[in-house]
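tokens incoming
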């Protein structure tokens, strides 16, 4: 039997807005850059199916991510290229635009019935989520998908050593370490008229970004994506 369970502890509502009569459910992808085993994506699809609406996945490509360079961006975009292809195969529209993640999510969120985002912990990433939440006129739901056991479930305090945290995590493994099968998409979004960057030409996208080019890409020796490091 397929398992598409999203545990309650992974789900956090960030505002008190009501679901709107929008055109789609928006999954704002930022931290969990993948189409497989992504609780935020599966949650967005499940909610869209309930609302009888399509899902749109968006990504904001900012110019000045801290301490990044050409190698970082090339590797990331190669992985996102693969992610976009996987989403297309499931009938899901991928929209990537130049701009900070909160700006792009805010723009596309204006037409959304519901916004789903993945979780991050860095201060500036949390600030992006706060900005989107404050501007949104629909619910914003944050889903934890990058750890096996959500942090607050594992421990309510700062653990000073792995030997104190590890037993707390192991207590919950049976409930959280489960398969996550793809949720069938009931309402495809590929025909929606939403413009984004063409990921088939990564050189063109990279040429528009003021990146540190002193650290070159390592493609095709090593390419980003699910198959790294043996993609080829």
């Amino acid at each position: 039997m397929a398992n598409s369970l999203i545990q309650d502890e992974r789900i956090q509502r960030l505002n008190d807005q009501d679901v709107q009569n929008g055109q789609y459910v928006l999954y704002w992808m930022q931290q969990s850059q993948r189409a497989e085993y992504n609780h935020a994506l599966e949650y967005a699809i499940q909610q869209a199916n309930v609302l009888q609406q399509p899902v749109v996945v968006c990504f904001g490509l900012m110019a000045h991510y801290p301490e990044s360079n050409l190698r970082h961006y090339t590797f990331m975009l190669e992985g996102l290229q693969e992610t976009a292809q996987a989403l297309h195969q499931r009938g899901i529209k991928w929209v990537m635009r130049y701009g900070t993640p909160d700006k792009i999510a805010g723009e596309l969120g204006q037409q959304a019935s519901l916004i789903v985002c993945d979780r991050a912990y860095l201060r500036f990433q949390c600030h992006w989520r706060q900005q989107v939440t404050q501007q949104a006129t629909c619910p914003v739901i944050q889903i934890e998908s990058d750890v096996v056991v959500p942090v607050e479930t594992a421990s309510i305090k700062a653990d000073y050593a792995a030997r104190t945290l590890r037993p707390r995590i192991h207590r919950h493994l049976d409930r959280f370490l489960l398969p996550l099968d793809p949720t069938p998409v009931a309402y495809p979004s590929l025909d929606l008229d939403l413009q984004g960057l063409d990921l088939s030409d990564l050189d063109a996208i990279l040429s528009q970004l003021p990146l540190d080019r002193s650290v070159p890409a390592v493609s095709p020796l090593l390419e980003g994506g699910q198959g790294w490091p043996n993609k080829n």
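note: The chain has a mean pLDDT of 93.
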